[in-house]
Amino acid sequence: MKNLVGTFAPPFAVLNDAVFLRTLHPRDKIAGMAEAVKVSLIRDAVFFEWLEANAEALREYAPVAMARMIRRCAELHMRQITHGGDPFESGSVRPLDYGHWSAHKLEALTAHELRHGEAVAIGLALDARYSVQIGMLRAGLEDRIYDLLKRLGFYLWHPAVESRDDEGRWVLLRGLEEFREHLGGDLTITLLRDIGRGEEVHRMDTDEILHAVSWLRRREIGQ
Q: Which phi and psi angles does 82 have, rounded to 5°?
């Protein structure tokens, strides 16, 4: 398991018990879906389209839809772990961490009031919009991503996104440096070139990040 220090070791096995999953709080069921959206965005456009087509069934936790989502999500994660070239995450490239640089910071800022998946969903929306702003992702695709996350039941805002320190600096932006340290090397952020196609970059423009934050705020709370 990966911990907050960044240590990672692939487990011997992961058991997905459908009966146990039914006992989870609805908030936890929804939070887990963020990882399925994430891996579809960077690896499998067909899976993303399936999530769109089945969003209502997933939102109601329909057993057949949930089982298919979990299986495909696991397959895509396992493909990266076994064929990605760095199963112990000793380097700086971690495509499965798409949307996570801000998510990790938001979890800390909220003292883990935000579930990991809830923070990741916010990160996915922010990085999708950022990808559009810098010309990597076609305009309008960020709306599809946002809409899917909303249909699954995510609320894509938290006041901690706009936290500032005593000198008025945006605390969220510290997440970039902390993410670089978490990687143990150069900053590598996965953004979107298309739905189903992630692409790595090694710098992010802070002004564009704040523009993406403003976009998300307007979408969620109208300000």
A: -85, -25
CATH number at residue 130: 1.20.1090.10
Instruction: Count CB-CB contacts under 10 A for residue 121.
Output: 31
Query: What pLDDT score was predicted for residue 181?
Result: 66
Q: What is the pTM of this model?
A: 0.91
Rounded Cα gap, residues 190 and 100, in angstroms: 9
Q: Is residue 2 part of a domain?
A: no
**DSSP assignment of 89-142, as one string?**
--SS--GGGTTHHHHHHHHHHTTT-S-HHHHHHHHHHHHHHHHHHTTSS-TTHH
Three-state secondary-structure class, residue 197: strand
Each residue of 174-205: b (16+ CB within 10 Å) or e? ebbeebbebbeeebbbbbbeebbebeeeeebe
Q: Taking a C-beta distance cutoff of 8 angstroms, is the pair 127, 44 a contact?
A: no
CA 121/CA 29 separation, integer angstroms:
13
* Length of the chain in terms of residues written: 223
pLDDT digits (tens, 9 = 90+) for 88-98: 555 444 667 89
